[in-house]
Amino acid sequence: MLTTRATLDKHRADVASMFDGVAQRYDVMNSIMTLGAVDRWRDLVVDAVEPAPGQVILDLAAGTGTSSATFAARGAEVYPTDISMGMLQVGHQRQPGLHFVAGDATRLPYADDSFDAVTISYGLRNVENTSAALAEMLRVTRPGGRLVVCEFSTPTWAPFRRVYKDYLLGAIPAMARLASSNRDAYDYLAESILAWPDQQRLADLMSDAGWRAVAWRNISGGVVALHRAWKA
Questions:
Q1: Max CA pair span of the chain
Q2: Where does the chain bind S-adenosyl-L-methionine (predicted)?
Q3: Is 82 annotated to bind ligand?
Q4: pLDDT (tens digit, 9 = 90+) per residue, 32-73?
Q5: At CA 105, angle to CA 14 and CA 54, rounded to 5?
Q6: Binding site annotation covers 207?
Q7: What predicted TM-score, i.e. pTM, was given to this entire model?
Q8: 121 assigned to a ligand binding site
């Protein structure tokens, strides 16, 4: 089992098992934990990805396919991919028109230069090896293609950072006790946000993996950061 004291050291089997256990209520819990902001953040991801007819998009850590459905609605060919079979099964039930794929972000089951865009939302911090995943994403992206990473990050206003940390460590586990049968999973998720690199450090990891023109946009005061980059 994953311990609730999260670090950047994770094992894919543990992560998959954790998400299997929360799959049925994951989307509801996302809305509760973000006080409804997750819908606006999803819209910003779609704008950054710029899906269009004829494009092929890889949606990693796709979960139940909520984001993938928005890309498909704009005419793109989407490959929602996730390591959690539980998430994929729920996704099949809720989004029967999507073709879900089981896959590990560090060993993607796709050929080189396959996608016009790769995106991952709130999942990169749960990957076993961040640098390996970023390199794999680069491998499967076509030259000139783009990467969009949406992830919880570090609030930019110092006084708010303290309040935010208290919310993560207190409010989210309390919400999980009321709305989820897997409180340990949400303890872990809260801790993993605090252990995650800030905006600049994530940008550096992306650059080190070979991505170019890396930039980010802070959302909700840096609670979330939207990073974009391109393959040369």
A1: 47
A2: 64, 82, 104-105, 121
A3: yes
A4: 777 788 899 999 999 999 999 999 999 999 999 999 999 999
A5: 140
A6: no
A7: 0.88
A8: yes
